[in-house]
Amino acid sequence: MSERPPISPRSPRAALEPEQVPPPPKRSERARNPFVVVGNAIFTLLIILMIGVGAVYYYGRQILETPGPLKEDKIVNIPSRAGKRDIADALLREGVINVNPWVFIGGVFALKASSDLKPGEYSFQKNASLRDVIATIVEGKVVQHAVTIPEGLTSEQIVTRLLDNDIFAGSVREIPREGTLLPETYKFPRGTTREQVIQRMQQTQKRVLTEIWERRNPDVPVRSLDQLITLASIIEKETGRADERSRVAAVFANRLRQRIKLQSDPTIIYGLVGGKGTLGRPIKRSEITQPSPYNTYVIDGLPPGPIANPGRASLEAAANPARTRDLFFVADGTGGHAFTETYDQHQKNVAKLRSLEKQIQNDTVEPSEDAPPPTAAGAPADTNPTATTPRPAAPAKKPPARPPAPATAPARQGAAQSTTTPPVVQR
């Protein structure tokens, strides 16, 4: 057996302490390489950066996709030359977004839309997310306002309407030539200039007129586009009923072929007031025979130009009138007209109308002295604001009480008797 060294007595503390501390392990030469140190640092930073980018992406996506605060669809106007901060403030003020403006700007940059934001009036849908809001502005699909121009207005009256409409901008250099604007319902974004509106109406009229002219009846007694517009404008002012336009056109076409004066009251009025459109009172007896280039009781054939801007339906009627021999028409008291080929039958229809007027007058309470004078002989004021020869009234409505035409007043032919209650001829 080997001998062990004798154990010398030691204190408990000394017994616990090692006799010799081992030296630390030597550091690897590779670990002390500066390239390794830098590489480890870069790798660590990349990991931290990736975690940060992932967190930002997740948070940003949540912000972009979260439904917005709008409780219902809303229209907001983004003014021209507005910066990204101005747009954000406007959207925040209108309740379209509920995030900090800088978050909105960050979303714009994230979607790469910094240079694509367009001014205009936009409709934002209910609960639109931030992504939807930015996409709406980038697409530039601004709100389109429907603007209806009624048939039968003069160019001066149309310009007045455009000037009174606050969705348009700019002024009008000059009133367009009569008959060059097509009445219709158009759609325009807010801020469209009035000159642009007029140009569009003129371009549409030219296109429609060309199509109608190519399909016209070769027997129609007009020889040019201007004459077609002039005839259509008279038809437009004479009736507002779609089922009568072609027949009214036939009366005037037959009169032109037989060289009979057209005798249309609206032409008298246009000769008196021009583009203002409305006479504001009945036609006087002296004005029926008053010489005027437009008075078709005096001149032969068509007047020198249109008396209003006719719509598509009246242009179609003028180009393709009904095939009848009618030469006269008069209101029948029920909202329409009675058409006849002979003057004797026309006189009978006029007598029926006079009798109906007297009956209506007897059944109607006389208005008080301070009551405003009746305007359009019972025709609804909004049907055609410029109808100087009033359009037929609805049968359910009684026209205001009016004194019958004097017994000595001649029964005027053609369109002169085309209203429900004919204009009173004053001495």
Automatic annotation (TrEMBL):
<dbReference type="GO" id="GO:0071555">
    <property type="term" value="P:cell wall organization"/>
</dbReference>
<keyword id="KW-1003">Cell membrane</keyword>
<keyword id="KW-1133">Transmembrane helix</keyword>
<dbReference type="InterPro" id="IPR003770">
    <property type="entry name" value="MLTG-like"/>
</dbReference>
<feature type="compositionally biased region" description="Low complexity">
    <location>
        <begin position="408"/>
        <end position="417"/>
    </location>
</feature>
<feature type="region of interest" description="Disordered">
    <location>
        <begin position="1"/>
        <end position="30"/>
    </location>
</feature>
<dbReference type="GO" id="GO:0009252">
    <property type="term" value="P:peptidoglycan biosynthetic process"/>
</dbReference>
<comment type="function">
    <text>Functions as a peptidoglycan terminase that cleaves nascent peptidoglycan strands endolytically to terminate their elongation.</text>
</comment>
<keyword id="KW-0812">Transmembrane</keyword>
<feature type="compositionally biased region" description="Polar residues">
    <location>
        <begin position="418"/>
        <end position="427"/>
    </location>
</feature>
<comment type="similarity">
    <text>Belongs to the transglycosylase MltG family.</text>
</comment>
<keyword id="KW-0997">Cell inner membrane</keyword>
<keyword id="KW-0961">Cell wall biogenesis/degradation</keyword>
<dbReference type="Pfam" id="PF02618">
    <property type="entry name" value="YceG"/>
</dbReference>
<feature type="compositionally biased region" description="Low complexity">
    <location>
        <begin position="376"/>
        <end position="396"/>
    </location>
</feature>
<protein>
    <recommendedName>
        <fullName>Endolytic murein transglycosylase</fullName>
        <ecNumber>4.2.2.29</ecNumber>
    </recommendedName>
</protein>
<keyword id="KW-0472">Membrane</keyword>
<feature type="region of interest" description="Disordered">
    <location>
        <begin position="362"/>
        <end position="427"/>
    </location>
</feature>
<dbReference type="GO" id="GO:0008932">
    <property type="term" value="F:lytic endotransglycosylase activity"/>
</dbReference>
<feature type="transmembrane region" description="Helical">
    <location>
        <begin position="35"/>
        <end position="59"/>
    </location>
</feature>
<feature type="site" description="Important for catalytic activity">
    <location>
        <position position="238"/>
    </location>
</feature>
<feature type="compositionally biased region" description="Pro residues">
    <location>
        <begin position="397"/>
        <end position="407"/>
    </location>
</feature>
<dbReference type="GO" id="GO:0005886">
    <property type="term" value="C:plasma membrane"/>
</dbReference>
<keyword id="KW-0456">Lyase</keyword>
